[in-house]
Design goal:
Strand content: under 5%
Oligomer: single chain
Shape: rod-shaped
Radius of gyration: 25 Å
Length: about 100
């Protein structure tokens, strides 16, 4: 009986190289910068990128770029909100002190 599997032997396959988290982080980073996605998308991209760095060794480059792009997008959002609050406060203060 040549060619038949032997009873009692377990056949193992190598683990698949997953790269989904790193790829998702990179895509969210690109879309956050180019499309100006909301404050929520860069946070999700950062979390996915950080998770991917430890779990997916084949996606370290994509995860690194995703972390960088999402951090830049998040910084832009934080600066924009800070400027909006600062200029809004300045406008209210100048209107209140002008006597109108």
């Amino acid at each position: 009986m040549v060619g038949l599997p032997t009873v009692g032997r377990m056949v193992t396959y190598p683990a698949s190289s997953r790269t989904g988290l790193g790829t998702a982080s990179l895509v969210l980073g690109i879309c956050s910068l180019l499309a100006g996605w909301t404050f929520f998308a860069p946070i999700v991209g950062l979390v996915l990128g950080i998770m991917s760095r430890g779990r997916e060794p084949m996606a370290r480059g994509r995860a690194g770029w995703g972390i960088l792009l999402n951090a830049v997008a998040l910084a832009i959002w934080i600066i924009a909100v800070a400027c909006f609050v600062a200029f809004g406060t300045l406008a209210v203060w100048s209107h209140a002190t002008s006597g109108s």
